[in-house]
Amino acid sequence: MSKELTMDELLAGSEITALTVGDVIEGVITSVRKNEVWVDLGARGVGVVMRREIGHGQALDEGSSITVSVIDPEMEEGHALLSMKRAVKDRGWDEVQRLFDAQEIVEISPYDANRGGLLVELEGIRGFLPVSQLAAGHYPRVSGADKDEILQKLNALTSETLRVRILDVSRKDNKLIFSEKEAVKDDMQARFAELTVGDVVEGMVTGVIDFGAFVNVDGIEGLIHISEISWERVDNPRNYVKVGDKLKAKIIAIDKDRLSLSLKQMSEDPWLSEVKSFKKGDVVEGKVTRITPFGAFVQLSASVEALVHVSEMSDDETVDPEQLFQLNEKKQFKVLDIDTDNRKIALSLKDAK
Q: Among 45, 35, 54, which residue's Cα sits nearest to residue 80?
């Protein structure tokens, strides 16, 4: 009498391998019921997909092929427990890992945002694009780190398609991080190579803050420091530029990933022409604009500001500038020195008397 072979022995003697947890395989739907879908796995038996493992929007027609993942290769009843959801996710992880390894650039459309960044789904896997990984053109430049304004700007990106690279992926930790900066890095390096200090570039203001304005120059971030906005003394950059303004500026420095720009150097320095009307030894009238412990700043003309040092205010060494001057007060001063190279003029109050 011949010995009856077990299923494992039959499988071992053929090219058909036994099912194991995590296998992703193809099958054909044989029956669709209210809470389950039965699947023919061919020589590997029969399996069932419970309703919670079907997922949304997947076709459930009898006779159609589907991809499933094995949760349990053999239940007590003899059939396999399967998941359609997990199969999609398993294949998704394989694909995002491949994209990460190849450092491919992919297009994504964020489905939501929070104050930290954008929520993204790729190949059925949910991931995150942090604010810090947005390219210059999309980075939310706001004054005072206003969280509501940041969120508003990020929400506006959920209707856009972004080109990104995968920065980090870990199936074990369920982590998928994207970077727009990495996707444009190669283009940025090529553009940086074409730029030199002194070039005039055109860009759009993307943010105005207390110390200057950020400008998007063809995808490259530029900063106009408050000292480079105007030849005049600038107290508030918002009085000179606003978000959305298109302007031309001169490159005064090229840093690792940012341009330092100057708006004021697009025109001649009016100081140089106005200072010609003053000579050493002249007694001139000026308006006090700032008072400090070491002296007072005095406006001599629209663009020329000078300093009267505390030592030139009085023969009394204990003199207090705040007791001697009032803001916007006009007084007579003597010009002690004019340093054209450094744009400085020294005045004396005591010698003007």
A: 45
Q: Give the span between the Cα atoms of 317 and 208, in whole angstroms.
A: 43
H-helix or E-strand containing 295? strand 295-299
> Measured between alpha carbons, how far is residue 321 from residues 283, 304, 310, 352 in Å?
20, 21, 7, 16
Within 10 angstroms of residue 266's Cβ, the number of other Cβ atoms is 12
Measured CA to CA in angstroms, residue 193 lies from 68, 188, 190 at distances of 50, 9, 5
Instruction: Write down all domains in the chain, each with its CATH number in brackets.
Output: 24-89 (2.40.50.140), 103-183 (2.40.50.140), 195-266 (2.40.50.140), 271-352 (2.40.50.140)
pLDDT, tens digit, 9 for 90 and up, residues 122-149: 888 899 999 999 987 788 876 555 678 7
3-state secondary structure of 37: strand
State pLDDT tens for residues 241-300.
998 899 999 999 998 778 999 999 999 889 889 999 999 999 999 999 999 999 999 999
